[in-house]
Amino acid sequence: MSPARTAPPHGTAERAADEAQGSGAVVLTDVVKRYGRGPGAVTALDGVSLSVRPGSFVCLLGASGCGKSTLLSLVAGLDDLTAGSITNVDRPVAMMFQESALFPWLTVTGNIEIALRVRGVGRAERRRKAAELLETVRLTGFAHKRPHELSGGMRQRVALARALAQDASVLLMDEPFGALDAMTRDLLHDELERIWRERELTVLFVTHNVREAVRLGDQVVLLSSRPGRVLNTYDVGLERPRRIDSAPVAELAAEITDALREEVARHAG
Amino acid sequence: MPAEVLGAKEKDDSRQTVSGLDELERVPVSDTRWGRFGSRLWAGTWPKVLALVLVIGAWQALFVSGWKDPWVLPSPLTVWEDLSSYMATPDYWQAIGITLQRAVTGFALSVAVGSALGIAVARFKPLRAAIGSLITGLQTMPSIIWFPLAILLFQISESTIMFVVVLGAVPSIANGIISGIDYVPPAWKRVGAVLGMRGLTLYRHVILPATLPSFVSGLKQGWAFAWRSLMAGELLVIVAGQGSIGALMQGAREFSDSARVLTWIITVLVIGILVDALFRAADNRIRESWGLNQDR
C-alpha cells in the first residue's frame, strides 16, 4: 500500500513519489486546500510543499489560521485535497490530537486494544501488545482504570499508546501537549523523544509553541497564516537530549519567534 | 537504536519523575465507600419517609373531616387492611404478573422497533427529513387517542393493548437514540476514522457505545409512556379471562369498592417507583464509570 493521493489538476505526483524513499517518508507537493466554493471560499493552504525524511521529527509551527491542523488532516486522509499531492509510503498513518478523546466506556487497556482490534489482531495478541504499549508509556499499573480516573498528562500517554498500537511508521500529532501544564509537558517531551527513537518513527508535530518546536524537532517548518504557505524551514542542529530551558534552544526559539511575529503583524489592520 | 544514548541512571530518573507526577495528579478516591453508601441511603430515604407521612396525614385529615362518605373515601387504615389481606391471595400476584408480562413484552417490542427506527432515522438524511419531526410529534400524542382505532383494527384483544403500548413507547426510545447519535463528540468520530473505522465498524465501536447515556434516558422515558399506555389500555380493553390490574380495578369500581381501587392505585405507584429506581441505578452506573459524576 503506497498510494499517492492526487487532486485532479496537478501531475507532480510522480516526482513526489520518486523523492519518497523508504518507509515513513511523507512528501507534500503544492498542496492546496480550499473550503467552500465561489467568492466565499477560504483558502486554508496555498501551495505547501514539504518533504519529510523517514525517521525525522518535523515540527509545523504557525499562528492561528495557518492551516497546520488542516495539513495533518490531509496527510491522515481525513480530508480531501483541492490540488497538489501527498505521498506517504506508509498508510494508514497514526494520529493524536490535543484532546485525548479516549472512549469513556472502555478501560485504559480497552482504549488501546480497540486500535488493535480494528486491525484484526487476535484477542491474546491484543492483550500482550496493549500491556507492552502501556509499559512503553509507563502506565502499567493503570490498565484497568477508566479514562476519567487519570490526569490530563496520563490520558495523553494513553492516547499516544493507542496511536502506537496502529503500528504505523508515521505519527501525526496535532498540538498533543497544548492543554497540559509546563511540568507535565516537559516530561512528555522526554517520553516522546525516547519513544520516537526507540521505534524509529517519523513524526509530524503541529504546535504554536516555538520552544516546544525547537525542543523536539529536527526541523521546524514555519507556516504563514491565511493562507498557509511555508515561510521558512529551520534545521535544528542541536544535540539531543535537549532541554526546553537551555540557552541554544532559547536562542533559536527567539529567532523563529521574531519571524513569527513579523508574519502575525502583517495581518494587522 | 540510540535509546542507549541516555544513561541507565538518567532513564530511571525520568521514570521516577513520571510516576511521581502521576501519583500527585491522580484524583484521590476516598476509601469509605460503605460509609458513603450508608449516609447516601439515609440522605435519600428520610425525605421520602417524611413525604409519605405527610400524604397519609392529609388523607386521614380529609377522611376525618367527613368530606365524603367513608365507603366512597375510605381511611388509610381501611385501605392498608385491604391491601395486606389482598396481598395474601394469589389473585393479587397473578394480576400483577399478567400486567407486568404485558408491560415487559410491549416494552421489549418497543425497544427493538424504537432502536431500529432511531438508527435508521439518524443514519439516512432523507428518512430524517421525512419522519424526524413526525416522531417528535407522535411523542406528544396522548396514547389513549389510539384506542378507538386499535379496537377497530384488533377488536378486544391483547394485540389492541400491545399496539397502543408500542406506539406510546417507540417515539421516546427512537428519539433517545437519534439525539445520542447527533451529539457524539466529533473528536471520538475522528479518532475512529484515524483508527481506520468505517461505516458499520464505526457504528459498532464508537457511535453506538457513545449514545448509551442518551439511549438509557430514552428507555426510561419510553418505559414511562409504555406503562401509562398499558394502564389506560387495561382499563379500556378488558380481555376475557385475563385478570390484569386494570381489569380487577374496573371490577372493583363496578362493585363500588373504593378501598380495592385505592389498593390498586398504590400498587401501581409502587411498581412505578421500583422500575424507576432500576433505570436510575443503570443511569448512575453509566455516569459513574464514564466519570460524569465528578462533582461529588
TrEMBL record, chain A:
Keyword match Transport: yes
Keyword Chloroplast annotated: no
Domain of life of the organism encoding this protein: Bacteria
Alphabetical keyword list: ATP-binding, Nucleotide-binding, Transport
Domain ABC transporter: 26-250
Record region (Disordered): 1-21
Entry-linked InterPro entries: AAA+_ATPase (IPR003593), ABC_transporter-like_ATP-bd (IPR003439), ABC_transporter-like_CS (IPR017871), ABC_transporter_ATP-bind (IPR050166), P-loop_NTPase (IPR027417)
SUPFAM superfamilies membership: P-loop containing nucleoside triphosphate hydrolases
Single GO MF annotation: ATP binding
PANTHER family recorded: ALIPHATIC SULFONATES IMPORT ATP-BINDING PROTEIN SSUB, TAURINE IMPORT ATP-BINDING PROTEIN-RELATED
Protein's name in the database: ABC transporter ATP-binding protein
Automatic annotation (TrEMBL), chain B:
Domain (ABC transmembrane type-1): residue spans on this chain: 96-279
UniProt GO BP: transmembrane transport
Keyword Phosphoprotein belongs to the record: no
Highest taxon of source: Bacteria
UniProt key word Transport: yes
Pfam families documented for this protein: BPD_transp_1
Transmembrane segments: 49-67, 103-122, 134-154, 160-181, 225-249, 261-282
Family annotation (InterPro entries): MetI-like, MetI-like_sf
Keyword annotations: Cell membrane, Membrane, Transmembrane, Transmembrane helix, Transport
Main location: membrane
Coiled coil: none
Similarity comment: family membership: Belongs to the binding-protein-dependent transport system permease family.
Protein name, UniProt field: ABC transporter permease
Organism name: Glycomyces lechevalierae
